Amino acid sequence: MPVNYSVGSVGLVASYDGDYTVAELEVDKGGERARLFRFRAGGDRWTQNDLSCPLPAEGREWAPAGVVAQKKTLWWFDLSWGLLSCDAFVADPVLLFHKLPEDRALGMARPDIHTHRCVTVSRRELRYVEIIPEDGGDGHDKEAATVSMWTRRMATPAGWEWDKKYSMRFKELWDDDTYKDTGLPRKVPVLSAVCPSNPDLVYFALEQRLFGVDLPVHKVVEAADEAHELVNMPWPAPASCRYVHAWNLPPWVARDLDLVRFSSSDEDEDQTEELDEEELVKLGMEAAMRMDPSTLKSEVDNFYDYEGPPSPEREVMRQMRGPFSFWLTSEEADADLMEVHRRIMKKRRREE
């Protein structure tokens, strides 16, 4: 492995066919050049690409805070400035720079920035979350503090934009009975994580306790009864997004880790079988949408309306476009699963 520039610069991206790439991005001081080191599944060595770095000429250094994967794209982020992205699987990647939403950029990175800012992927889309105190305060005991989420979306073929998904004032949460039941004080917490399958569910930490909030409805939906403990971290390091990673575990993995309870009752066994059958149908629908390589290439070319030989400019435009996918949208998938559930229940009623 190359000399590690920062653990916040190393990312992992996997494809649906089992291929994966480990990548580390090194950005030179001054931000004009960068190097991308990659190791792919089945390979026997690291490869290096020297890249032009698109950072704005602001006379500042890139402060890596982490990296997330969205389909085939890796997104490295500086929580005080913006994001760098590239397709991790192409032979000649092009590095792109993306600003933080609205006016959220800072003049420099702060040591505790990870306690109130987060970049993550939830429901296959890139999200930026921030706790924002009023009037530039420190965020503690400020009832006007808010937590906001933005989603990265394609605006035009020439660029991206951030859409604000929601904002919640902490006062609205503190006044709700679900928060009062936790016994926690009226104090702005640390931002910990976003649920990978539900962007409305955000996790926070306060007084060594983790709790999950459904932000659009201002309610606590999960709360740990015991104090958390970070692995190999001296107390009292906050359980911020720098140290907490949310995983969407398959049911059989959760069972093996004893993270869910199971009963031997017939009702629970039926429910487990029903969920397994729903999952199998879902996987079947996804597999049915896959195409052979030649058909897929033809459809993608038609979708992007490519004409003429490839060029560096076309490659940049291709990487700036949203990843082409035959996968269902979240709404379509939810609707299909509801229909699957209805048909399963109808079948069981006929068999009874």
Automatic annotation (TrEMBL):
Residues 76-203 form the DUF1618 domain. This is DUF1618 domain-containing protein. It holds the Pfam family DUF1618. InterPro entries: DUF1618. It comes from Panicum hallii.
